[in-house]
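Run log, item B.
One chain of 178 residues. Sequence copied directly from the ordering sheet:
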Amino acid sequence: MSHFTDNPTPILPTSLSPLIYIGGKAALNIFSEKGTGDWHMLATFFVKNPTGVRALSFISGEGCPTDTVWIFGDEGIYDCTEKLAYQRIPHEGERAYAASHARATADLVIGWILRGGTANFVCLDDWMPRDSDKQEVYDLIDKAMPHLNDEQQTKAREWLRRNPVDYDWGKPDPEIKI
């Protein structure tokens, strides 16, 4: 039995607002001209999930488990209707919105921290090839810091230490304890 489907479940019209949008790893699998993001579009949008449940951040924003709108507003949210059509990703409704790759990454990090977890699964080098791309994420994390309590700020700083801009992979980082 194949897990692929010719008729994937469309993205419901909950993504019809700049404040409720495709987020997380789903947004990272929408094509970007910048060359950033993840490259598992087929698994993200066209493979039947045996549980029928999408990832926690698939739809993000107001009222969703990953809600950073109160921190970032609609910064980094864009109308992705044409990109979805180009990638043949079905969605219901006239318009759909998604997080930019930088916003999706920042949402993943801050979302997990706000829920009491860590974002150690988010590796910036996997999705952001250039320092300028990474800096966009850093800027968003920096913008979130005043909204976080001390424990959350510590987790965010630890994540930043683990995901430095211009990291020299040949030299161990003494700050990181694995």
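Observations after the first pass:
- The radius of gyration is 17 Å.
- Confidence is low (pLDDT under 50) at residues 1-5.
Flagged for discussion on Thursday.
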